[in-house]
Amino acid sequence: MGHWFYINIVEPGKLPLFLALGSFVLTFLITRTITRMIRAGKGPFRNVSGAGGVHIHHVVPGVVLTIVGGFGAVATGREGVAPCVFAVVFGMGAGLVLDEFALILHLDDVYWSDDGRKSVEVVVLTASLVMLTLAGFSPLGVNELTSDERENRAAFVLSLVVNFLFVLVALFKGKFRMAVVGTLVPFVAIVGALRLARPGSLWARKAYAKRPKARARAGLRAFHHDKRWNKAVRRFQDVVGGFQERASR
Fold first, then answer.
1. What 3-state class would DSSP assign to 209?
2. Quick check: pTM over 0.85?
């Protein structure tokens, strides 16, 4: 295990990214645990208020830690212990910020509402992308090119452009998750681009405007997909985010 860790993480210079991911996930889980305890009135933790009784959300220290970690990492370069320390600081800040992503998005305290589920979704998506990066995946399929193709500038640029177009099509078709993951795994973007667009997406409004059969098929496919997966996704979000606990009180 130690040899594998050195060969795949330390030697390629991925240790700061590994530490940032670990502190990001750990901070998110600890924060969710504390907020659930505060909501339930258990433990020693309490909400923090500033001058005038204003509730200070943890996104505030999260922004500070993200700025310190980011600028610190840029300033210290890649050698020594400092990049690892700042990577941990950055991961902690990112965990605090993205835990309240839904509040930033809606500019409202939706932490325990259905809209607050977006925070859990963004955290899971971010952690997944970082893990793919740690595993060696490069943006837009660069990792799939041979050494000869990398040296051939035309082939290199063409590969980037084609894969980027697949990502854009998937995004326009309302396949946000597939588009994001597809930036690192082009096959996912290709699947998202080739499948029917989700109802209400930009692609569906433009391409299916005069094609009622295509609109009907797209709506039926989206219905069956959501029926199959939404329940499992919501159960996972309930376990991680504590939304079910909130609804039961």
1. coil
2. no
Q: Per-residue pLDDT averaged across 47-71, rounded?
A: 84
Angle, alpha carbons 166-171-177 (nearest 5°): 100
- Which three-class secondary structure state does DSSP give residue 117? helix
Checking 140-143 for CB contacts under 8 A at 24+ apart, the result is 140/164, 140/167, 140/183, 140/186, 141/186
- What amino acid is encoded at 241 in this protein? G
Q: Quick check: 90 and 66 in contact, CB under 8 A?
A: yes
Q: Give me the residue label for tokens 């993951």.
A: 181
| Structural tokens at position 5 | 């860790």
Reported as half-sphere exposure (CB side, CA atoms, 13 A), residue 59 has a value of 16
Tokens, residue 118: 């977006």
Neighbours of 234 (CB within 10 A): 14
**How many Cα atoms are found within 13 Å in the side-chain-facing hemisphere of 182?**
25
Residue 107 and residue 110: Cα distance in Å, rounded? 9
Cα–Cα distance list, 109 to 40, 116, 237 (Å): 18, 9, 18
Burial label for 88, CB within 10 Å (0-12, 13-18, 19+), is buried
Which tens digit of pLDDT belongs to each residue from 99-138?
999 999 999 989 999 999 999 999 999 999 999 988 888 7
Task: Give the start-to-end residue ranges of the domains of the chain.
Answer: 1-136, 138-195, 197-249
CA-atom Rg of the chain in angstroms: 21
CB of 27 within 8 A of CB of 91? yes
> In the numeric block, which tokens belong to residue 173?
């078709």
Left (φ > 0), alpha (ψ -120 to 50) or beta: where does 53 sit?
left
Share of the chain above pLDDT 90, in %: 47
